[in-house]
Amino acid sequence: MHADIKMETLRQLAEVVDQQIPFHNLLDMRVKQYDLKGLEMTVMMRTELVGNIHQNILHGGVTASVLDVVGGFTAFASLIDSRDDWNIDELKSRVKTLSTIDLRIDYLRPGRGEVFTGTGTVIRAGNRVSVCRMELHNERGDHIAFGTGTYMVG
Amino acid sequence: MHADIKMETLRQLAEVVDQQIPFHNLLDMRVKQYDLKGLEMTVMMRTELVGNIHQNILHGGVTASVLDVVGGFTAFASLIDSRDDWNIDELKSRVKTLSTIDLRIDYLRPGRGEVFTGTGTVIRAGNRVSVCRMELHNERGDHIAFGTGTYMVG
Amino acid sequence: MHADIKMETLRQLAEVVDQQIPFHNLLDMRVKQYDLKGLEMTVMMRTELVGNIHQNILHGGVTASVLDVVGGFTAFASLIDSRDDWNIDELKSRVKTLSTIDLRIDYLRPGRGEVFTGTGTVIRAGNRVSVCRMELHNERGDHIAFGTGTYMVG
Amino acid sequence: MHADIKMETLRQLAEVVDQQIPFHNLLDMRVKQYDLKGLEMTVMMRTELVGNIHQNILHGGVTASVLDVVGGFTAFASLIDSRDDWNIDELKSRVKTLSTIDLRIDYLRPGRGEVFTGTGTVIRAGNRVSVCRMELHNERGDHIAFGTGTYMVG
């Protein structure tokens, strides 16, 4: 698979993740960047995402949701990166079976802020199973949470 | 603390969890039961909660959100159960600092169904830190996910 | 594969796990039972396994070791159970690639006791990846630890 | 507490971890360095620590054991670093209750090598509960495993 086909696959996937997943729209999760290194997503703080009304803190479920998506699509980017023998249709078929096996979230500090950004890195790349580590930061760079996810990528 | 005060505390907390947490309202998460044994919550499937549009499956972030809430308030119920020396104001002050330290979700099968119910059990009870195991089932009794959460309860 | 071939495979595997893994011998971990439902292992308390000298408590690494082995071979038993098309040589070849992807241990109470028994159950069975939950109890039935492990089974 | 008392406490603790914990001696786990930033431990490969006899690979239980110890004492170093109001006796009393609440190990690649080194970093520091991330590398710098542990530090 040529590099430009890989990039085109990522571009199309980014559009799906950004616009066509109903739950992402409900939370207004947005794709900031998606390349062969992984997916970067943001979510803006707003009243509907608050979990602790006394302190105006992001609900832990939002953190888990963002990091799960970042981890899964970062794992998939790594799969795209590693394979040169698939065409865009095979990749599209494969992404349908992308799923989370297990997910761990470590909450480091209260989710205060206005824009939260999730990033990820593959720590174990496989043809079937990949493992990612993810991080969530606010707009001031405060580190809100770590994540670790194991994903079925094929 | 008398048993009836404990029950009144739980009743008031259940109302908060059911109606006053913005993110719970966004997902339409509802308290089914809250007693000294723990919290039981439900969420109805609807389009906005879908993560996989090809298969109409609940987003993994919804699963994580429900199980995190179930775990935290189940841990808090256990704390209420164990202490006889607190009044309702002390408990209300204490619940404000209830927070998740870490959370693990094991996704067992795709989240297909119409009503999802989360339940939990305390496996390690402490005055500061408690650990819960949680489960999510659909209305047919299919086991969708397991959770394990470590919570700061005071 | 006939049921008796499955049982013979398990019997041979049990002998390997019980006697031929150097680290199992170092800890004196013993197979109590191995059938299609899973592996049950025991370890006897002795001075060399102590982690906390003030309180004579089992080292947390022993707990993790026992539960990891129980989880992996319980996952493998489930694979044997599910497949009727493999012969004993294929299974032996497959067990060589059995490996842990990730492992979570929840320590519930101090590891006091004389005989510790680890048991496990498959919670997600797959042809490639399986997930197990494990438990460690002492001889009085005190629940010492929970485990959750994700294993590559082929 | 003066800086030199902190260092003296760490020096005494390092001696205990290195020489007086029976299970550490059984595995021949050695303290490489212990300062306010954390604990660094090594274990040499030898036949008794092998888990996979076909491939001469370190048993996953050894990995879990080393990373658990590294995480716990790294968390404790952070506690020592943060408090100036304790004397050496208070610290010694406090270390007796140091315990692991939960531990996650992510196995990245087979444990091949001759010397394995575990290092750790505190990601959430608390007066009661701390969370660490740990890593295991072999002598060639290959990254064998990640760990995440939640510890009761007081």
General description of the model:
4 copies of one chain form a homotetramer. The first copy, chain A, is 36% helix and 38% strand. The longest helix of chain A has 23 residues, at 60-82. In chain A, strand 6 and strand 7 form a beta hairpin. With 154 residues, the first copy, chain A, is α+β, with helices and mostly antiparallel strands. Chain A is elongated, with a radius of gyration of 15 Å. The two termini of chain A are 17 Å apart. Chain A has a single domain (3-152), classed as Thiol Ester Dehydrase, Chain A, CATH 3.10.129. The mean pLDDT of chain A is 94. Chains in contact: A-B, A-C, A-D, B-C, B-D, C-D. The interface between A and B is large, with 36 and 36 residues.
The overall strand count of chain A is 8
Second-tier CATH architecture of chain A: Roll
CATH class of chain A: Alpha Beta
Q: Major β-sheet of chain A, in short? A: 6 strands, antiparallel
Rg calc of chain A: 15 Å
Please identify the oligomeric state. Answer: homotetramer
Distance between the termini of chain A: 17 Å
**Share in β-strands of chain A:** 35-45%
In spatial order, strands of the major sheet of chain A run 1-2-6-7-8-5
Largest interface: A-B, 36 and 36 residues
Shape of chain A: elongated
Count, helices of chain A: 4
> Uncertain runs of chain A with pLDDT below 50, 5 residues or more?
none
**Overall domain count of chain A:** 1
Q: Element order, helices and strands of chain A?
A: HHEEEEHHEEEE
| CATH fold group of chain A | Thiol Ester Dehydrase, Chain A
Overall average residue pLDDT of chain A: 94
Report the CATH superfamily of chain A. Answer: Hotdog Thioesterase
Q: Structural class per helix/strand content of chain A?
A: alpha+beta
**Portion of residues in helices of chain A?**
25-40%
